[in-house]
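User: Please fill in residues for this 104-position structure.
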């Protein structure tokens, strides 16, 4: 009787381990999907919006740099932006240093 019980328990254990393996794979896939929709996708959307903002900079826009400097764009080219801070002060920054455009 003992041999029958052990053999039966072993068969159930094999089935349980097969389901355990599938459930582990499914959980890993679900975690990846969750990370994609909660972390990766929103970050990609923010980066795309930021790149559009940087590409659409124009002379006369009021901007804030990543360092917190407020000013108006005096001149710009492909890689740099000249920000006019006051009447006599003009500072040159990389385009990537512009954090936000201030809307009036």
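Assistant: Residues filled in for all 104 positions:
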């Amino acid at each position: 009787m003992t041999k029958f019980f052990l053999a039966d328990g072993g068969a159930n254990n094999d089935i349980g381990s097969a389901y355990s393996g599938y459930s582990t794979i499914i959980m890993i896939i679900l975690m990846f999907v969750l990370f994609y929709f909660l972390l990766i996708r929103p970050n990609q959307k923010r980066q795309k919006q930021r790149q559009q903002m940087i590409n659409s900079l124009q002379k006369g826009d009021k901007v804030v740099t990543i360092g917190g400097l407020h000013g108006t764009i005096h001149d710009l080219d492909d890689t740099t932006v000249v920000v006019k801070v006051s009447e006599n002060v003009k500072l040159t920054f990389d385009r990537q240093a512009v954090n936000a455009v201030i809307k009036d």
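For context: The beta strands are 62-65, 70-76, 80-84, 90-94, 98-102.
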